Amino acid sequence: MSASPPAQRKIIHVDMDAFYASVAQRDDPSLRGKPVVVAWRGGRSVVCAASYEARKFGVRSAMPAVRAERLCPDAIFTPPDFTRYRAVSRQVREIFLRHTDLVEPLSLDEAYLDVTTNKTELPTATAVAQCIREQIREELSLTASAGVAPNKFLAKIASDWNKPDGLFVIRPGDIDRVLPPLPVGRLPGVGKVMEGKLAEMGIGSVGDLRLRTAAELEARFGRYGLRLHQLSLGIDHGEVKPDRPTQSISAEDTFERDIPLSELEPHIRRMAEKAWNAARKTPRIGRTVVLKLKTADFQILTRSLTPGRPPESLERFANIAVELRDRVNLPADRLYRLVGVGLGNFCDASELMDTPEQPPLF
Fold first, then answer.
1. pLDDT tens, 248-275?
2. Which helix (H) or strand (E) covers residue 197, if one does?
3. What are phi and psi of 148, to 5 degrees?
4. Is 165 annotated as a binding-site member?
């Protein structure tokens, strides 16, 4: 007797709408309906979040705060309150756990849920998603968008479809209709550099990508080429992994032209800002600062430092990353094509204690 085929997965991706800004507007009624920008003022500050009223002016997360102020002169700036955001995030997660124990947080404001079977015995994954959104609205006075699909990749695509305060479902029979028109930039791992490489091949949409064979993509991009082929067909075998702790967060950039070590500081600080903002979305605390460099001849260098106390501010974090540059002992005329900055060695706040400063790991 043959074994029964595995059940079709039912995955929900829930994404809180403009989370930091929405919490600020909820807690201060005078901010409701107004363009709110969550950021510290100052030349080095970047936007953590923007309300939908501010987004109409082009304000976006990770944008320099001074540019946001130029785009929206009437914006109301409010400093981030991560203690508050973490508390609200815990309340949202408690709602998720009423429906399934298979919850994989991605950040304070989004998570995957596997509801192939659910604890509330609702008949469909769509009904579960709708119930979760209603409970978030009624109990927390916030809104969330949700995507329902047979895998994580498609669920994340779906959650962005009807934002804000929306619900979108991609059923197995919808995949060949929904995916082909999408730009390849919507696929996980396709950033500006990869998007440019695909454009050189005449690939601009997922439909274009489908016309290329797996062998052709693998020959050009290695194992990631096979991943691209699968994603273009809507295939993603990744499981929802509950309580996966953050181990490291980083940001990196490949330059348009190779540059010397002496010109790296502004690029290091820019990547530090991106990594710092991403790290603020997790309740865990990173203790090790990492600088990654790739030379023009593709040699990869890594320098790291674990200070006695974790970096308490973006400025401190960026300064350590810049100082790590001084520990690169290559000739001064060596050129570099990539820089990356990251935080590693994450721990829970309850585990944090003073530790002696460690030497570089590499």
1. 888 888 888 899 999 999 999 999 999 9
2. helix 192-200
3. -120, 130
4. no
Give the contacts of 269 (CB within 8 A, at least 6 positions apart).
Answer: 44, 318, 321, 322
218 catalytic residue (yes or no)? no
Q: What's the pLDDT score for residue 164?
A: 92
Q: Residues 225, 218: contact at Cβ < 8 Å? A: yes
Please tell me the distance from the alpha carbon of residue 218 to that of residue 230, in angstroms, as a whole number: 11
Which of 110, 121, 323, 351 is catalytic? The answer is: 110
pTM passes above 0.85: no
Question: Is 17:163 a contact under the CB 8 Å cutoff?
Answer: yes
* Residue carrying the six token digits 């007797």: 1
Fold category of 19-82 in CATH:
MutS, DNA mismatch repair protein, domain I (3.40.1170)
Tell me: is residue 114 an annotated ligand-binding position. Answer: no
* Span 25-51, pLDDT tens digits: 999 999 999 999 998 877 667 888 999
Tokens standing for residue 177: 């209709």
- Tokens 């800002």: give the residue: 273
Query: What is residue 355's predicted lDDT score, i.e. its pLDDT?
Result: 42
In the block, residue with structure tokens 């009223």: 53
CATH architecture group of domain 248-351:
2-Layer Sandwich (3.30)
42: left (phi over 0), alpha (psi -120 to 50) or beta: left
* 11-16+83-175 CATH fold: Alpha-Beta Plaits (3.30.70)
Radius of gyration over every alpha carbon of the chain, rounded to an integer in angstroms: 22
**What does the alpha-carbon distance between residue 241 and residue 87 come to, in Å, rounded to a whole number?**
22
Instruction: Name the percent of the chain lying above pLDDT 70.
Output: 93
Contact 255, 337 (CB under 8 A): yes
Domain ranges (residues) in the chain: 11-16+83-175, 19-82, 187-232, 248-351
Average pLDDT over residues 80-84: 86
Statement: residue 190 has pLDDT above 90: no
Q: Does domain 187-232 have CATH number 1.20.1560.10?
A: no
- Position 1 scores a pLDDT of 41
> Do residues 110 and 17 touch, judged by C-beta distance below 8 A?
no
Measured torsion, CA atoms of residues 34, 52, 192, 337, in degrees rounded to the nearest 10: 30
Q: Phi and psi for 199 in degrees, rounded to 5?
A: -65, -35
